[in-house]
Amino acid sequence: MSTMTINLKVWRQKNASTPGKLVDYRVEGVSEHMSFLEMFDHLNEQLMKKGEEPVEFDHDCREGICGSCNMVIDGQAHGPQKGTAACQLHMRHYKNEDTITVEPWRATAFPMIRDLVVDRSAFDRIQAAGGYISVNTGAAPDAHAVPVSKEDSDIAFDYAACIGCGACVAACPNASASLFTGAKVAQFARLPQGQVERERRVVRMVEQMEKEGFGDCSNYAECEAVCPMEISIQSIAEMRREYMKAIT
Amino acid sequence: MYSLLTAFQNSVGRKILTGVTGIALTGFLIVHLAGNLTLFTIDYSNADNAFNRYAHFLHELGLLLIVAEIGLLAIFLIHAYLGIAIYLRKRKSRPEAYKQFKTRGGASKQGFSSRTMIVTGILLLLFTVSHVNHFKFGPGWSGEAEYTQVVNVGGEETQIRDLSKLVGETFQDPIYVIVYVAIMILLGFHLRHGIWSALQSLGAMNKKLTPVIYAIAGILGILIAIGFLLLPILIYFTV
Ligand code: SF4
Ligand code: FES
Fold first, then answer.
1. Scanning A51, A118, B100, B233, which has its CA 20 to 30 A from the CA of B56?
2. φ and ψ at B173, to 5 degrees?
């Protein structure tokens, strides 16, 4: 089986207080069957053999469901493939001797930890500010006990697919978290279970988003284009409707 | 719990206000353009024409006009303030730029018009100041004889301002025509993203409608810009 050589330019940064820079690596023996992250594993093995520090990158599920593989690949969050996370990108999309630039998510609200790893806990705090419902614990109700229209359940499900990866923030020229927050707000607003906290949810989540230092939305819709779950900016429009209802 | 001030304090509130003021300003542009259309029909050598009479009619509204002007100024200033505030916050939200950055295309509306809103906006702001200064407060504003005429309004001999004379004279200068046309092209770009964006900001969007409204908004923006820029060219070549 023939293998490729890939020229990587990877962002290396020791920590938030040390300036980082792009470092060139030549990765030999890359198979087209490798995922993008496996190519990084391969690079790291080579680096460790040489006694160098491996490139720090976040990953967990490696199948597009955990949202931890944050990488801006050649200027695009999660790389050039539509509707997938970086871990689902395979090296067969590249050619021998291709040069690929890899950078971390860049946003004040996602502080740098090391190399390609940033701290996305701002999302957790937005979620905690209002992304929950009140239910009694105990016996689970029957699935059909609460009627939900087909349209609402479909759209709420689309929004609930958000994996909290942060690509929307990374790709937004303003580093806005509107798609993430919009998906959460709109998902609950469409379901009967979300009605109790409906008004305070949107106000609190929007305020938390502000406090975390995310930018304003300018309706570039770049977020929808890079979202691995292809969540529509309709959710952002719905968040604004919810906000207007809540404050009037 | 809520006041206009809290809306300035978060991104969703700012976006809604930007959208509301933007739509109001677009509405004003359409009314302004309708007024300008009379300029296509008049004889510039005769001060008693539809354009001057329309201007006089507005002037005669007196207090009502002043209230409307103050309202318009407030809307304009809020819109400009928010645009600048959004831009400054964006710089704080991502202080370190990507070494490489590329739009994904597809659903993205990133392009020349959306990326240059702050630039086209600031140029339009400067233009508007100079435009109001040149026409509204220009020759004839304080009743200079050369730019006023006595005409019969509703059976009474009335002194009205000959604004069409100023318009006709202004656009004899090719520099003025070129600058004006250039600014109107920028207005077209500002509206191309702005009209659609305002509707999205007010939540008046859904997945199926977006492509249709995006297209209609673009056409509307371009038509408004063309409406405004045809006039100086026409005056330059015909008057
Ligand atoms: S909205 Fe999409 S891009 Fe944003 S965090 Fe959720 S899955 Fe990721
Ligand atoms: S590693 Fe889990 S989504 Fe990529």
1. B233
2. -85, 115
Helices (H), B94-173: 112-115, 117-131, 163-170
Residue B51 three-state SS = helix
For chain A, the residue count is 248
Residue B104 lies in a domain: no
Q: What is the pTM of this model?
A: 0.93
Angle between helices A178-189 and A150-160 (to 10 degrees): 150
| Residue B140 forms part of a structural domain | yes
Domain range enclosing B226? 2-95+110-238
**Pairing label, strands B156-161, B148-153:** antiparallel
Q: Which of A68, A103, A138 is the last residue of a domain?
A: A103
B98:A103 CB<8 A: yes
Which of A165, A214, A239 to mutate for ligand 1's pocket (most ligand atoms within 8 Å of CB)? A165
Element (H, E) at A12: strand A4-12
* Structure confidence by residue, pLDDT tens digits, A200-248: 999 999 999 999 999 999 999 999 999 999 999 999 999 999 999 998 8
Q: What is the domain count for chain B? A: 1
Q: Which CATH number is B232's domain given?
A: 1.20.1300
